[in-house]
Amino acid sequence: MRSPEALRARLRATWRSRHRSWLGGGGVWPHDLPVPRPSGEAILRDWAGFDAWLRAWQAIDDAGIGEVEWDVVTPRRVGPQRVPMRWHFADACAVAAAVGEAQAWARADVRFRMLRARWSGLAPDPARLDAALRRSSAALAEYADDDFARLADVVDWLCRHPQSGLFERQLPVEGIDSKWLGRRRGLVRDWVAAVRGLDPGLDFHAVTGLRPPPARMRLRLLDPALRAAAGGLGDIESPVAELAALAIDPACVVVVENRDTGLAFEDVEGVAVLMSRGYAVDVVERLPWLAAARIVYWGDIDTHGLAILARLRARLPDVRAVLMDEDTFLAHRILWSEEVAPDRVSAHPTLRPEEARLHADLLHGRWGPGRRLEQERIPWDHAWPRIVAALGEG
């Protein structure tokens, strides 16, 4: 005998998987759950249980939770019995009430319809707008009224001023600040992209027309002559455009991923160190004084470290890697950690053959799944002499 709670559990599963598609009147209605009928033998075997089962279904009917449809059956040896046949839900509101989501559902549905009406005239593809709003059902249901109004106003303003060039702090929407916007970037990007019909793969700033903060890099000048050419500064963090304007001519530039590694470098004649923050190597070609310098790269020995090397070499073909080889990796086996989300690109054309083999071996788990060696784990007394040797090689 299937109890109301057992069927309600099925209904909750249906709710979780389908309620987003029901916003704005979607879905196929009514939604019915058949109630299996007990056999005459089951009734005779457990009359008390049968009676409790009937009373539970009667309580559901009396409470108006959906609509219980009844039928009269005449099982053998029992006689006529009025039993539930079907649990009937006329619409999404009825399902929401049955699973305890009535208030959240009503709020989400009203807001969905409001935003659809507000933006459908701007959207080149209303179906895509609906899909974006449905993906955001949690925000539609949970945001406080004032927060939801601000969110809608921000998206509205950005859609009507698609190339404002403002910094986030300058948005003329009352009650928001950069922290508020930072917590809602994904939602704002998705909604603006849907309203404007933009490529969903574009980043936040490309979609919103807001100005990104300038890319910044940190530079250390390890030679007194280089520091003199930079007005005595030896440790500089600034926008890339300002670093590009420095009148320096280093003979060699070391690019490292890790800030603390870069800070540990000692003075070496003619050498500068760029702390590139991983994939920020994409901007190094904007530094004109790199053109005549030898470039050495030292990153983590993992799939992403080798992918970054490949990206850097695509811009600066003569980049030499140091401490990023199989021998270094195997010599520090005890220091390995796990790379949770490896770079899945199977081939990077700018990697040299031995680097490409290492990337493939790491990607395919030759030494176990996700093995990696972070540059910061290599003992400094092992690393520094090898760095110095690499800097001295022409």
UniProtKB/TrEMBL annotation:
<dbReference type="InterPro" id="IPR014544">
    <property type="entry name" value="UCP028408"/>
</dbReference>
<protein>
    <submittedName>
        <fullName>Wadjet anti-phage system protein JetD domain-containing protein</fullName>
    </submittedName>
</protein>
<dbReference type="Pfam" id="PF09983">
    <property type="entry name" value="JetD_C"/>
</dbReference>
<dbReference type="InterPro" id="IPR024534">
    <property type="entry name" value="JetD_C"/>
</dbReference>
<feature type="domain" description="Wadjet protein JetD C-terminal">
    <location>
        <begin position="209"/>
        <end position="385"/>
    </location>
</feature>
<dbReference type="InterPro" id="IPR024537">
    <property type="entry name" value="DUF3322"/>
</dbReference>
<feature type="domain" description="DUF3322">
    <location>
        <begin position="4"/>
        <end position="192"/>
    </location>
</feature>
<dbReference type="Pfam" id="PF11795">
    <property type="entry name" value="DUF3322"/>
</dbReference>
